[in-house]
Amino acid sequence: MRDTVQVALEHGLAIGAHPGYQDHEGFGRRETGVAAADVAALVRDQTGALMQVAASLGGLVGHVKLHGALYHRAHRDRSVAEAAAGAVATLDPALIVVGMDGSALMQACREQGLAFAREAFADRAYARDCQLVPRAQPGSVLTAEAAARQVVRMVHHGVVESIDGVVVPIDFDTVCVHSDTPDAVELAQSIRLALAEAGVTVGSMNPVSLR
Predict the structure, then answer these.
(1) Is 179 exposed, middle or buried (0-12, 13-18, 19+ CB in 10 A)?
(2) What is the pTM of this model?
(3) How far apart are CA 64 and CA 47, in angstroms?
């Protein structure tokens, strides 16, 4: 955490927490089924730990995004969404929560007065219901070129093409690139260049505009 925060501060980057299940072997991408109260505790503990580290280095945590299986569970499970949102609000009501548009988490955050940033995914294929295609399915992870095209289309036209060729609308405020996607750095650079060439300016999330 210290190393990551230090690098972020050196480059003027926003710092965000990414709390998830205590599942190191599964990288937090396996559903563990823990109770909502335990979800609140892990979000509070993991985010709080990063906030302490950031503060010790003169930084500030500005946003929270749930990780992996917990992210997807909070999308559909109202009790888990409320627990996660409540934990964030307890830590700092100024924190921005990142999640998918129309999710249970978005509703819970807005009910608790938290700013919510709707997220789109650059490097993942979408199904026609605007959910992510499971990683086990061929074609679920996009190449740098395909990811750049997808992001530019989402920004300019507000749509994404599903893996089976259906064009569906999408609303979002921020874009995710997974750090464990192969060649993630090159992929992010390709997206940034494609956005610049398309006349799109990339900036920090504004909590006022997200409420």
Answers:
(1) exposed
(2) 0.93
(3) 8
